[in-house]
Design a protein that fits this description.
The complex is a heterodimer of chains A (327) and B (262). By secondary structure, chain A is of the alpha/beta class. Chain A is 29% helix and 29% strand. Chain A folds into two domains: 178 residues, HUPs (Rossmann fold, 3-Layer(aba) Sandwich); 124 residues, 3-Layer(aba) Sandwich (Rossmann fold). In chain A, helix 3 packs across helix 4 and helix 5 packs parallel to helix 9. In chain B, 29% of the residues lie in helices and 31% in strands. Chain B contains seven helices and 15 strands. The termini of chain B are far apart. Chain B has a nine-stranded mixed beta sheet with strand order 11-10-9-12-8-1-6-7-13, sandwiched between helices. Classes of the chains: A alpha/beta (327), B alpha/beta (262).
């Protein structure tokens, strides 16, 4: 009987949404493979209601690894924690989030267990009982289907917002097993956190993104886009040209050497649409382009577009959205 | 301080990816040093300059063409380059690659290892961290700021995470994976380009590294691609032209009332 395990990503003892998304996919695969088991691996402090909540979202079994070394994230300690849980569960597959933490931890686990890791997956299928993962390569310019060698568990990180959590079912129960982890000497430790400016969501989590390109001409003009962001509750993005010109911090960059994003709506303002930029945003559900040049490549991928001067169009759009959203 | 920088050669980001007979067609690809590895090279050079001593060695794994990536790093100021021949190796498999790189690191010797946070080809984002695990070293990934104290062997880094940056303290030796923003890479100088001509780039084989070829061969790969595809082309959109007031109002109406996405 196959076990599909999910490493919970906990914040203050509570699983993040990405964990529930992975649980839903693990549940689907376990059921499709015929009476498979879904297990949660939880490391460190776990909130008192969390086991029940994770059960209601699809988990059959929870392995809770406890130890002083797991109080805050450290890749070496967490890798030891995952290894202890894997020894208890012998899972066929272990999912981790393709988040800052999951991407930092998963390769450590891969090296420690000497098993294959498919990173940043966006889909799975069972082919004759064997698992195949789908993942973007070249920042989404192409896709690859990946299979694993016979070594178990198969490791995969899953891109957030790919799957939808199951409706919680309070009648579902899970067993909880505790594993004690001896102290681990972690040689790299997180000692602080600096919050980035503003109230905006991270680009990879944003529902709406407004990005500016070369036509912004300078840092001061991004204020026009910030106003539109505020009205829409959107996150500010930028093209490589704008970042390399020093107008805006690289953490805003969308594209092959920046973030790969998949919002509901992506506004490309004054962005011509270089291949490396399109790679990072072309999986957005709706793309809106605003550009003076009607032959700009961005219009070839845009769902909607306005040919016009952004300095006229964007303030008008901001005003129209303000009116429309007030109603 | 001996600094090792692992550099991968990848298709230029302006490359249009194409398939031929179901596999990636690299015939028209322009190969460049991985953009994230450029930040790693630059950081290594700056550390050496700051300390006023040390050696920067660039290592690249792959076919003969990767010598170009090594030469590029040498032209920027790296002291030495090593080409690890990857014949028979599962070059797409992060675990196989990291196994070979770890053996190369041991042979070369190091106090610090730098590499990019990911290769902009298969986007695995694994090799640097795997290397740390296989060499039993600490690591910090996706680094945008780095401070080292070679005397105490202690270091601090800032790594980019969702909504901000984590501050990490760690001990040396360690592996750092570079994110854009760590520094502003320099351009090659004419002097640097001329100096490359005199440099000999040694070639290391798997046998010299003591790696069992069978353990890293294509058939032993921990992961493998079974199919490639291209994203479906997007449908042609509705493009509005004319008076800015009218087009702005119409676009808001479409998004808000028709498509109902905002």
């Amino acid at each position: 009987m196959a076990t599909f395990a999910v490493l919970a990503e906990l914040k203050d003892g509570v699983a993040r949404k990405t964990t529930l998304e992975m649980l839903a996919e693990a549940r689907r695969l376990a059921d499709a493979s015929g009476s498979g088991t879904v297990a949660i691996v939880a490391l460190g402090p776990l909130g008192s209601d969390e086991a029940a909540r994770l059960a209601s979202h699809g988990a059959d079994r929870i392995v809770h690894v406890e130890g002083e070394s797991l109080a805050v994230y450290a890749s070496e300690a967490y890798a030891a924690g995952v290894k202890a849980a894997v020894e208890r569960l012998s899972p066929d597959t272990l999912f981790l989030g393709a988040t800052s933490q999951g991407k930092d931890l998963a390769p450590r686990v891969s090296g420690r267990l000497r098993v294959g890791l498919a990173s940043d997956c966006t889909g799975f299928e069972l082919k004759d009982g064997d698992l195949v993962a789908r993942r973007p390569i070249f920042a989404g310019k192409a896709f690859g289907k990946v299979a694993w060698s016979a070594a178990r568990p198969r490791l995969a990180t899953i891109r957030p917002n790919t799957f939808t959590p199951l409706e919680p079912d309070a009648s579902r129960k899970a067993s909880v097993e505790k594993v004690a982890l001896p102290e681990v000497n972690a040689r790299a430790r997180v000692v602080g956190f600096e919050k980035s400016e503003g109230e905006m969501l991270d680009l990879t989590e944003a529902n709406i993104i407004v990005s500016g390109g070369r036509a912004m001409q300078g840092p001061e003009n991004f204020e026009i886009l910030r106003k539109l962001c505020k009205v829409l509750g959107a996150t500010l993005g930028a093209s490589r040209a704008a970042v390399d010109a020093g107008w805006i911090d690289h953490s805003h960059q969308v594209g092959q050497t920046g973030k790969v994003v998949n919002p509901t709506v992506y506004f490309a303002v004054g962005i011509s649409g270089a291949i490396q930029h399109l790679a990072g945003m072309s999986s957005s559900r709706t793309i809106v382009a605003i550009n003076k040049d009607k032959d700009a490549p961005i219009f070839k991928v845009a769902s909607y577009g306005i040919v016009g001067d952004l300095y006229q169009v964007v303030p008008l759009l901001t005003e129209e959205f303000r009116k429309a959203l007030k109603e | 301080m001996n600094i090792l920088v692992f550099v991968k050669q990848v298709p230029d980001t302006e490359t249009r990816i194409q398939l031929k007979d179901g596999v990636l067609d690299t015939s028209a690809v322009k190969w460049v040093a991985n953009p994230y590895d450029e930040f790693a090279i630059e950081e290594a050079l700056r550390i050496k300059e700051r300390l006023g001593q040390g050696k920067v060695t660039v290592v690249s794994l792959g076919p003969d063409r990767v010598k170009e990536a090594i030469k590029y790093a040498l032209s920027l100021g790296a002291d030495e380059g090593i080409h690890v021949k990857g014949e028979g190796l599962a070059l797409w498999d992060p675990l196989a690659v990291a196994t070979v790189l770890a053996a190369a690191a041991k042979k070369a010797g190091f106090d610090l290892i730098l590499t990019g946070k990911q290769g902009v080809d298969y986007d695995w984002s694994q090799a640097g961290i795997l290397l740390a695990e296989l060499l039993d070293l600490p690591h910090v990934s996706v680094v945008v700021h780095l401070e080292l104290d070679p005397a105490s062997k202690l270091a601090k880094a800032k790594r980019e995470v969702e909504g901000g940056a984590e501050l990490v303290e760690f001990s040396l030796p360690a592996v750092i994976t570079a994110q854009k923003g760590l520094n502003e890479p320099r351009y090659a100088s004419l002097k640097g380009i001329m100096a490359v001509k005199k440099k000999v780039i040694p070639e290391w084989t798997l046998a010299e590294l003591g790696v069992d070829p069978g353990s890293v061969s294509e058939s032993a790969a921990s992961v493998r691609f079974v199919e490639f595809s291209l994203p479906p082309p997007r449908q042609a959109g509705r493009i509005l032209e004319g008076d800015p007031k009218d087009t702005a109002r119409e676009l808001v109406r479409i998004l808000h009332e028709e498509a109902k996405v905002i």
